[in-house]
Each structure stands twice: as structure tokens, then as C-alpha cells.
Design brief:
Radius of gyration of chain B: 22 Å
CATH architecture of chain B: 3-Layer(aba) Sandwich
Shape of chain A: elongated
CATH class of chain B: Alpha Beta
Largest interface: A-B, 94 and 82 residues
CATH topology of the largest domain in chain A: Rossmann fold
Number of strands of chain A: 17
Helix content of chain A: 25-40%
Largest sheet of chain A: 9 strands, mixed
Helix content of chain B: 25-40%
CATH superfamily of the largest domain in chain A: HUPs
Number of helices of chain A: 9
Strand content of chain A: 25-35%
Number of domains of chain A: 2
Number of helices of chain B: 8
Distance between the termini of chain B: 57 Å
CATH class of the largest domain in chain A: Alpha Beta
Oligomer: heterodimer
Distance between the termini of chain A: 65 Å
Radius of gyration of chain A: 22 Å
Largest sheet of chain B: 9 strands, mixed
Chain lengths: 321, 263
């Protein structure tokens, strides 16, 4: 196979992201005996390096005051200078990975695969990758030629964390080799999400609506059900894009992370971005008129029905009790 | 401001149930309704709004077969000034890098201050914008949900990051941005708008016009190739409630009571 495997470590406030140990498992799935190294890039990163050093052969760090905020445009320049040309780099497919990786693969002249959910073996220089299309409606096998290296974005949560801590490596300081990182894009500030009239992250029961609600006027159907149940209405992304509900009601990686006891997914197809915001193993009821909607794969109970017909029936029955 | 927007014709997932075909070589294409990729439509709307504010022009470009002309024309009906179609048998089977290199050739035939793509399309890869920026050596920002003009050298952009937060950046022009849904409210395109641009000529550029060699794009140039489509064997999935609506409602209420879903 090609060269070494690297895993890009995402972290916040000195704590590595869950993906840090998931990428160990992902790398082992590519090649069980591969030497896997971590990349830790930022400002004041020693604590993060110490956290992951037992899980990786080596931890390469770039520590620079200029990287106090992870600006992908700057980090890409540094990585081009330190990474071996034919390496495989695994990056979490999050808002940073989407920013960093496609351009990095061009600059490294290596292959790029986005949003890998699994690997199915390496034959010679051909890596077989599994990914999804159409918001998870269909799955595909993809062959990736890694002879000149590859950058692969891996979907967070798709591999179990490897807790074995079996590597016990060393931290290698690569800061001196990072070179000039000045970029045409400069980070200014982070604007925190607006706080809405309800806090869906604190609710035990959510009636969550998606595209299946079809029209803004139909939202009262969900409001009525939520009222009857003593629940609160949340939603998936298209409802917020259409400006039918405020952003603070959105469940998903780009919205709120919720931990309800019961989650009614009404007319929601169940993209991984949506499910990424659903934690704490709730009891999930999916109601969708498409029997093949991905949401039925993760739901506990499913009902094949048009929510516009079904929800009012449910509301009436609950109200009568 | 001279703006180029890259758009793609895709099956409309709001109108279709996407399924694998019988031999797994493709999705089931019979009776599919196609439209412009949702993210791209927001990008075109944003470009038109910028043009309306500061002047300039909006050009829409698409890589695809001749049927992609209809989405270019639709975006012109929205208010884009020019349309370009990049089409050639040699482009078939292009991976993300192949598509980006075709768009790079199209960019270099013009002079643009701002290049927009949708954040992602039907394959969910979110890759072409970032690749295009790297090929052109231009600054890049992905998942952009806000654009503010500063001057003719730079603009301010907001990126949608985790948790609904917004990362604000200053970025030098020219640059490439990938646009996230929700940045604006795309205008409705009526039949009259479509009629107005029905006879506008949309130039078609092939490999020769773009100066790309056939083996650098298409299937021949692709390092990443889709082998098949399939439905994975997943765990048990949901227990489907069957019966009349009344029976289903009754069962569901029992379950909700048991799980603490009814107060």
C-alpha cells in the first residue's frame, strides 16, 4: 500500500473530539497493521497531544499562536509542508473537514473521498470505500486509487471509538516545518446561535417535523399534537431554511443537539446531519409516507403514513383520553 | 462585481423517492423529476442579490449532458445574465477533481471577482468548490450563510458551523465560496420568466474549447470511481405498526405512555 496513515484530531477547549478515537478504528479498517499517526494543529496543544498519544504511533503537532482559531485556509498550507506526499490522511467530515480537505487533496495531488462511512478492504493501491448519496437514501461502493496518497473525510460516528490505547507513541514537534501560513481568509469572530423562545435541548418529548409537513400552514397540526402530548415542536433543516420555524428549533449538527426521552420524527427522512443532533438513545417513533426513508432504519417504531392525515388522528385520540 | 455560479442538474429529492435499480448499476431513473441542485439555487439567488446591490453580472455554468441546459436556462430566468454549458462525451464519469478542472478551465475563459458553488449536491461530497479554489489558488470558504460587501478588495462571509453558530471571516477577492441553504429566500420562477429566456443562446464548450485533454477528465482521469449502488444490510430497523389508522393510533399511544411520551 501507499504510505503512512494520519488522523486529523479535532478538539475544543483542550479536549479531543469523539472522532479522535473513531479515526483509530477507521485506520485499522483500512489496514490492520498500519502505522497510524495523529495530527494535532492549533495553539497550546500539549494537553490534546497528551490525551491522544497513547492511541497513536506518533503525534505530530503544529503549535502556533497564529492558529488559536482553526482557520482551514492556514492549516492547509501548513499540512502541505509537513505531510509525506503519498500518505493517507483521515479527517472528520464536519464543517472543518469540508473546509480543509477538498483543496488539500488538490495541493497534495492525491485522491479525495468525502463522507466515508466504512472501508471494505485494500487491494494493491485500490481502497474500497462505502459512502452514501441522496441524503442517505442509497449506499455506494467507491474505488479510490491511493497510489499517490489520499485525503479521506470520515463521517463522525460511523466507526466505534477504539479505546485500546495500544499504541503509546511519542509527540513530534513539526511546528518549525509549517512554513508561511498567511492566507486570504482571516477569522474575525464566532457569532453564537440565537436563543429562541423554547430550549429544545431541555425537553423530554419532541414532536419534530420535516419536509413532510409540506406547507407553513400545516405546522399547526404539529403544534396541536405537541400541546396534546405536553411536548414541544422541533424540526429538521428544510423547515428552518424555509423560515417556517426559527433556527433554535432545528435538531442536527448545524442546529441543536437534543437528548429527549421520546422523539417523534414526523415527515423527516433522517439524514446523518439531522441524526447527528439526536443523542441519549431516545425512543424514536418515525412517521413517514415513504417506507424506504432512512429514518426507519434507526427508529424504534415506524408508521408508514402521511403525517398530514395521521397526526390529527393521533391528536384527537390523545385529547379524548 | 462579476460573479460566476456553478450549478448542477440533479434528481429532485423532494419530488422523488430515490431507489437502487434492479442490477445496482444506478438509481432508478424512470419517472425521475430533475431540478437544479437546491444549494446551487440559493447560490444563484445570492449572486443576483449582490449584483442588484453593487452592479456587475451573473453567469451560470453547468457541467453535464445537453439536458443540463434546462437548469442553466431556469437560473437565467431567475435573473442570471449569461449561461454556459460544459458538455462533452469525454466528461462522463468525471470525479470531483475532474468536474473542478472543467470549471477551472471555464473560469479562466472569463474574469470573475466571485465564484459561487452550492455547498453540496446529490452525492453529498461537498468537494467541488474547495477543489476549484485550490486549482485557481484563490481563497475559499465553505458552508457560507452570510455575505457582506466591504469594498472591491474584500468581503465579509459567515460560515455555518456546528451548533448553529456562525464563523465570521474576512476574505480577499477574487475568491470561491460554497453556499449553504437558508442564506436567502430564492425567488420563484414563473412560466413567464422561463419564456423570456427560452430563445437565449447558451454556448456549449467541449474538451477542445476548454483546452482540457480527454484523459485528464471523465472516467479516464478519475481516481475515485463509483462501482455500484446498494441497500446495506442494517440491523432490524423500526418495528412497523400495522393495521387500521385507529389500531395504529391505539398501539402508539400505549407505547408513548410506556416510554414517558405522554404527560
Amino acid at each position: 500500500m501507499a504510505g503512512q496513515i494520519f488522523a486529523y484530531i479535532r478538539f475544543k477547549d483542550g479536549v479531543p473530539d469523539d472522532s479522535a478515537l473513531e479515526l483509530v478504528a477507521a485506520a485499522k479498517k483500512i489496514a490492520a497493521d498500519a502505522s497510524v499517526s495523529a495530527l494535532v494543529v492549533g495553539s497550546g496543544v500539549d494537553a490534546v497531544c497528551n490525551e491522544v498519544v497513547s492511541s497513536y504511533q506518533e503525534v505530530w503537532k503544529i503549535d502556533s499562536d497564529a492558529l488559536a482559531y482553526p482557520n482551514a485556509e492556514m492549516i492547509r498550507k501548513a499540512l502541505i509542508n509537513i505531510l509525506p506526499k503519498d500518505c493517507i490522511l483521515l479527517v472528520p467530515h464536519d464543517t472543518f473537514g469540508m473546509d480543509l480537505s477538498p483543496g488539500l487533496s488538490i495541493k497534495m495531488d492525491s485522491a479525495f473521498v468525502a463522507d466515508a462511512v466504512d472501508f471494505e478492504g485494500l487491494e494493491g493501491d485500490t481502497l474500497k470505500v462505502i459512502r452514501q448519496e441522496y441524503g442517505g437514501a442509497v449506499t455506494t461502493h467507491v474505488n479510490c486509487d491511493i497510489s499517490a496518497g489520499a485525503v479521506i473525510n470520515v463521517r463522525p460516528g460511523s466507526f466505534p471509538a477504539d479505546e485500546s490505547k495500544a499504541a503509546g507513541g511519542a509527540v513530534v514537534d513539526k511546528s518549525g516545518e509549517a512554513g508561511d501560513m498567511a492566507a486570504g481568509r482571516r477569522y474575525l469572530e464566532t457569532v453564537a446561535a440565537e436563543v429562541g423562545d423554547v430550549d429544545i435541548t431541555k425537553e423530554d418529548v419532541l414532536v419534530s417535523i420535516g419536509r413532510g409537513i409540506e406547507d407553513e400552514d400545516n405546522i399547526e397540526i404539529a403544534d396541536d399534537l405537541a400541546e396534546a402530548m405536553g411536548a414541544v415542536v422541533s424540526c429538521s433543516r428544510p423547515i428552518v431554511d424555509a423560515k417556517w420555524l426559527e433556527k433554535s428549533r432545528q435538531v442536527g449538527t448545524s442546529g441543536q443537539t437534543v437528548k429527549p426521552k421520546v422523539y417523534l420524527a414526523c415527515g423527516i427522512s433522517g439524514s446523518f446531519q439531522h441524526l447527528g443532533g439526536l443523542k441519549g438513545n431516545p425512543f424514536v417513533v418515525a412517521i413517514n409516507k415513504n417506507p424506504k426513508a432512512p429514518i426507519f432504519q434507526i427508529a424504534d417504531v415506524g408508521i408508514e403514513a402521511d403525517i398530514l392525515d395521521f397526526l390529527p388522528e393521533l391528536t384527537d385520540a390523545i385529547s379524548e383520553q | 462585481m462579476e460573479i460566476l455560479v456553478c450549478v448542477k442538474r440533479v434528481p429532485d429529492t423532494a419530488e422523488n423517492e430515490i431507489e437502487v435499480n434492479s442490477d445496482g448499476t444506478d438509481i432508478e431513473r424512470d419517472d425521475l423529476v430533475y431540478s437544479v441542485n437546491e444549494w446551487d439555487n440559493y447560490a444563484v439567488e445570492e449572486a443576483i442579490q449582490i449584483k442588484d446591490n453593487v452592479g456587475g453580472s451573473v453567469t451560470v455554468v453547468s457541467v453535464g449532458d445537453e439536458e443540463s441546459e434546462e437548469v442553466v436556462r431556469r437560473e437565467m430566468a431567475m435573473g442570471a445574465d449569461n449561461g454556459i454549458l460544459l458538455s462533452d462525451d469525454a466528461f462522463e464519469g468525471s470525479d470531483g477533481k475532474g468536474v473542478a478542472s472543467l470549471l477551472k478551465a471555464a473560469v479562466e475563459k472569463g474574469k470573475y471577482d466571485l465564484i459561487l458553488t452550492g455547498a453540496q449536491a446529490d452525492d453529498g461530497a461537498a468537494q467541488v468548490g474547495g477543489m476549484l479554489a485550490a486549482m485557481l489558488d484563490l481563497p475559499y470558504a465553505s458552508l457560507v450563510n452570510k455575505i457582506e460587501m466591504i469594498d472591491d478588495q474584500k468581503i465579509k462571509v459567515g460560515r455555518e458551523i456546528e451548533g448553529g453558530n456562525q464563523e465570521m471571516n474576512e476574505i480577499d477577492l477574487p475568491c470561491v465560496l460554497s453556499i449553504q441553504t437558508g442564506i436567502n429566500e430564492p425567488r420563484y420562477v414563473g412560466i413567464r420568466g422561463i419564456r423570456k429566456v427560452a430563445s437565449v443562446e447558451i454556448p456549449v464548450h467541449g474538451a477542445g474549447d476548454l483546452g482540457v485533454t480527454a484523459d485528464s477528465v471523465g472516467d479516464a482521469g478519475a481516481k475515485v470511481k463509483r462501482l455500484d449502488y446498494f441497500m446495506p444490510e442494517l440491523g432490524e430497523g423500526a418495528e412497523m405498526l400495522e393495521g387500521s389508522t385507529e389500531e395504529i393510533v391505539e398501539k402508539l399511544i400505549e407505547l408513548l405512555k410506556a416510554k414517558g411520551g405522554l404527560k
